[in-house]
Every structure is written in C-alpha cells, then in structure tokens.
Amino acid sequence: MASTSSQAPSSSVSYSISTDWDVFLSFHGDDSRYKFTSHLYAALDRHGVRTYKDDPELRSGEVISDALFQAIQGSKTYITVLSENYAFSPWCLDELVEILNCHKTRQRLIIPVFYNIDPSIVRHQLGSFSKAFEKHQIRFAGKMEKVTEWRLALAEIAQFSGKHIHAKRYSILPLS
Q1: Does residue 51 surpass a pLDDT of 50?
Q2: In angstroms, how far apart are the furthest CA atoms of the chain?
Q3: pTM of the full predicted structure?
C-alpha cells in the first residue's frame, strides 16, 4: 500500500495529463527497501513530496498490475534505484520500460540512482545483470522481444546523469 503525505497538490503548475504523485520510486526490495530507499522515501515525505513506494504485498504475482502502471503514468518524476539484483526482477524491468515510455511521451523527469553498482555494469549488463539475463533468456524463451526490451531499457537508463550511492561511503559511525 502506498503512503502519501497530507499535503495537497500544488496548483501553481498545470499539466495536460493528470498526475497523482510527485515521485514514483522504482527499486529492488531485497537490495534497498529497508536501507537507502526507506531513508529516501522518509526524506521526500518529510518535505511534502507525494511519493509512490509500493508495498511488498503488491508483488504477489509476476505480472505488473494495472494499478502500478497507473501510478507510473500518474507520476511527475521517477527515481530508479538500480542495484545489484534489480535486473533479476521482471517486475522492476517492466516498471523501467514504462518509466522510460512516460519520459519519452510525457516529458517526465527520471533520476537514476546507482546503489552499490557502477553504471557501466547496468549499461553493458555485466556481473549480476548478465546472470539475470541468462535466467530471463531461459524463462522467457518464447518472449525474447520482452527480454530485448528490458536490455535496451537498462542500457538507456545507464546513459542518464544520475547519482552514485555506495553504502560503505555513507556508513553511520556509532555515537560515543
């Protein structure tokens, strides 16, 4: 279930397409849900930014839901938290394809965050991304156009100017 702040949407900016969310967060839960992404969400919420962050229960199936597509389409900005296991999730990859589609057709802003991963790994699908696509090619053998679409989406998002976050650089020291 998504949480929203209690602030009303700003009426100073007008959009031709209805937007329900200021930001849509796309992330792989196991990698960052209770780490970077939860802190980012809390900071955005504290500043009155209406942010869509899915709930783990929404991911009960492998097929991306219509409600999630509506949340993507109804968002002004996207923050994609790309992490080591992001490419293993067909759900995350479908989100990314739709996010890039909205960027192109609706001129929406995308801010990629490379969380503990180098953009070149994402761009060239090396390391864990290569392993993920080995599995996808077997699992989705009859749907290779989908796998190709995912590969192209990752290569494209890695070209965007983004933020690099390394958890080790930001570790919290104990208080004395």
Answers
A1: yes
A2: 58
A3: 0.80
